[in-house]
Amino acid sequence: MGNLITITIFMGLGAFFVFFNMTVGALVRPKLPNADKALAYECGELPIGQSWVQFDLRFYIVALVFLVFDVEIAMFYPWATIFQEYKLPALVTMLTFFAVLMVGYVYLWRFGYLEWVRSSVTTSLAAREATSVSSEKLSVLARRDPEQVAKTVNL
Amino acid sequence: MDGVLILKIVIAVGIMQMLLGLISYLILLERKTAAWIQDRVGPNRVGPQGLLQPIADGVKFILKEEFIPKQADKVLFLLAPIAILTPALCGFAVIPWGGILQKGATIPVIGWSLPVDFPFMVANPDVGVLFVLAMAGLATYGVVLGGWASGSKYSFLGGLRATAQMLSYEVPLALSLMTVLLVAGTLSLTKMVESQAGYFDIAGLHFLPKWNIFVHPVAFVIFTVCIFAEANRTPFDLAECESELVGGYHTEYSSMKFALFFLAEYSAMITGAAVMISLFLGGWHLPWIDYLIYGKAQPVDGGWIDVLIKFCVFWGKVVAFLFFYMWVRWTLPRFRFDQLMSLAWRGLIPVALAALLFTSFVVYLHKQIDLQYPNLWIFVGNLAIFGVLLAILSRPRAVQNRRIAVPNSRYNPQLAQRAVPVEPA
Q1: DSSP B397
Q2: Pairing label, strands B106-107, B112-113
Q3: How is residue B71 annotated by DSSP?
Q4: Triad A81, B347, B266: Cα angle to 5°
Q5: Is the pLDDT of residue B425 over 60?
Q6: Which of A40, A87, A119 shows the shortest C-beta gap to B368?
Q7: 3-state SS string over B244-309?
Q8: Which helix (H) or strand (E) holds B321?
């Protein structure tokens, strides 16, 4: 109970600091608005369109993968705390969970979801079978026979 | 009202003031360190040696005019600095920087003696590690809100990058902490520091401090990398890299609101350093010199003098680590974004999982069949992980240029002699 009270007080002090500074600033600072100041900063150019543009889908994949791993961490923390008491059952439970997780992780790795720059060579099975080699070996091959490799890769 | 509670409140107010003071002087330290490393003088106009610079900065932040872009979402724009700074400051509440004031110690001025052992910190919950992690996780909201609400493209892109980065590095951060938890068997930061106050018994000699860094070096390295990334410090400052995104998610913030973002970054640095020191570097434990003072390893509880010593040692370590942050900032260049994501997902996470798995096996064998020297085995396993990593990283690569060779490609020079040259007009 004491912990809760002191943490709340500490948090309250932090929030008070924030509000106090913002209020004092709002009271004393000058306010001379004009149309140019209200523009979004784009190095002096006039901004075109909205800023809420469609962003890369890869950020979405990162969020999804993070969610899986964060759930895993939420499950692992209590397990790690009581591990020494429960011994074998704890170990077996964790290893099972770990194995399931690893299947997903290997899948992500194999199909290139963990790479930021993805190409069809790593993500598509068809492309990989057509070339049947890794992208690194591919560039070795490309040195020997560039035309053939270029034809295969540009599926 | 309970006397212990009053003492706790006094500590809470004191440590909050100290934290804010330290942050403002950290900015001066940062500038002075930068100047020192780049062979310049640094700020030296305000006060002796520029020591009053933080006050001048503060006054300026309050007095400057503030702009809010027309396109901004006003409510969220206002909420973002609050949402980032309050949890960043709050995370410090559970850091054990003072050890334990023993039962019966008298409080000066009031003259009232304590009926119980008193952990000298703001709050001592059993789930300290989780609390710190939760508060660090909340920092992401401030960044997302700031980037999204500004209505500027730079802010938006900076906010996205920062979110992806903070999410990615939270996973290895938590995994590396788990390795330590597994051996400690507790989530309380106080108990973890207590377990590190002493020395390993190496062939009858007690000279190596019982710090977790000597047991879990892999976790230590991963944790260090992750707190740099979580605080958006170089080499992971892609969220605000000035050469690409101006200021990233705080491009549109001015005057006091900008200062609050800045304070949040520094307070995240301090909390990160403090957690690191409590978990890996012995917390308030003063190595070797404690033999001179106490004649034995430093005891967990003591009187006011002991609390003062522990306080000084802890903050000394924190400031030393903060200097390390700054040193790294002026030493290492920034990552590329794909390298950053690749380091987290394909580098740190598998290594952290390997360390976790190995540690859990050693702890299991220690408990089940009474394996001797578990710490030594974990250390050996960690060294093996480092060795395997080194072998993987240093293997010769067949081709340095990993771009797929295509005729007429500008990027793969291996085909240059076979490509059709383009004649200048």
Answers
A1: P
A2: antiparallel
A3: T
A4: 70
A5: no
A6: A87
A7: HHCCHHHCCCCHHHHHHHHHHHHHHHHHHHHHHHHHCCCCCCCCCHHHHHHCCCCCCEECHHHHHH
A8: helix B304-329
The model's confidence at residue A155, banded by pLDDT at 50, 70 and 90, is very low
Instruction: Indicate the length of chain B as a whole number.
Output: 425
Element (H, E) at B368: helix B349-368
Phi, psi of B329 (to 5 degrees): -60, -40
- The reply to whether CATH 1.10.150 applies to domain A2-118 is no
ipTM exceeds 0.85:
no
Interior/surface letters A94-115, b for 16+ CB within 10 angstroms, e for the rest: beeebeebeeebeebeeebbbb
Tell if the CB–CB gap between A39 and B414 is shorter than 8 Å.
no
Q: How far apart are CA B159 and CA B107, in angstroms?
A: 48
d(CA B40, CA B244): 26
CB contact under 8 A, A77 and B181: yes
Neighbours of A61 (CB within 10 A): 16
Domain residue spans of chain B: 59-335
3-state secondary structure chain A: CHHHHHHHHHHHHHHHHHHHHHHHHHHHCCCCCCCCCCCCCCCCCCCCCCCCCCCCHHHHHHHHHHHHHHHHHHHHHHHHHHHHHHCHHHHHHHHHHHHHHHHHHHHHHHCCCCCCCCCHHHHCHHHHHHHCCCHHHHHHHHHHCHHHHHHHHCC
Domain segments of chain A as ranges: 2-118, 127-155
Question: What is the rounded distance in angstroms from the CA atom of residue B297 to the CA atom of residue B97?
Answer: 18
Mean pLDDT over B72-95 rounds to 87
Q: How many CB atoms within 10 Å of residue B287?
A: 19
Read off the pLDDT band of B282 (50, 70, 90): confident
Q: How many residues does chain A have?
A: 155
Residue with tokens 């051996």: B183
Which residue in chain A has the smallest CA separation from B185? Answer: A81
C-beta atoms of A114 and B342 within 8 A = yes
**CA B254, CA B66: separation in Å to the nearest integer?**
5
The shortest CB-CB distance from B151 to any of A33, A37, A40 is to A40
**Cα distance between residue B343 and residue B348, in whole Å:** 6
DSSP letter assigned to residue B347: I
Mode of pairing for the β-strands spanning B118-119 and B112-113:
unpaired
Owner of token pair 């290997």? A106
What is d(CA B5, CA B84) in angstroms, rounded to the nearest whole number? 28
- Strand, helix or coil for residue B20: helix
Greater confidence, A40 or B280?
A: B280
Q: What gap in Å lies between CA B229 and CA B104, rounded to an integer? A: 44
